Amino acid sequence: MKEEKRVITLDGYEHGVMVNALNELRNDLIEEQRPTDAVDDLLLKTIDAPTKKQKSRSHDEAR
């Protein structure tokens, strides 16, 4: 069975909020001496997520 993937689109501010929230969760887990593996993986995936430039139609393309 193929793994289902989800795609979300975040602006720069939202991306920062997500990274900060995951980092805070990671810090809390460390303080509680609980494993952080899943949060570490998600944090790295979020930090390394590719950006997608908005395609804008130039004046020539609109014709």
Count of strand segments: 0
Please tell me what the overall shape is.
elongated
Mean pLDDT, to the nearest integer, reads 89
Strand proportion:
under 5%
Instruction: Report the C-alpha radius of gyration, rounded.
Output: 17 Å
Helical content, roughly? Answer: 40-55%
Strand/helix succession: HH
Low-confidence region ranges = none
User: What structural class should be given to the helix and strand makeup?
Assistant: mainly alpha
The N- and C-terminal alpha carbons lie at a distance of 45 Å
Number of helices: 2
Task: Give a quick account of the main beta sheet: strands, pairing sense, barrel closure.
Answer: none
What can you tell me about this protein's structure?
The protein has 63 residues and is mainly alpha-helical. It has a domain at 12-47. The protein is 49% helix and 0% strand. The chain has 2 helices and no strands. α1 (12-31) packs antiparallel against α2 (37-47). The longest helix has 20 residues, at 12-31. The protein is elongated. The model has no long low-confidence stretch (mean pLDDT 89).
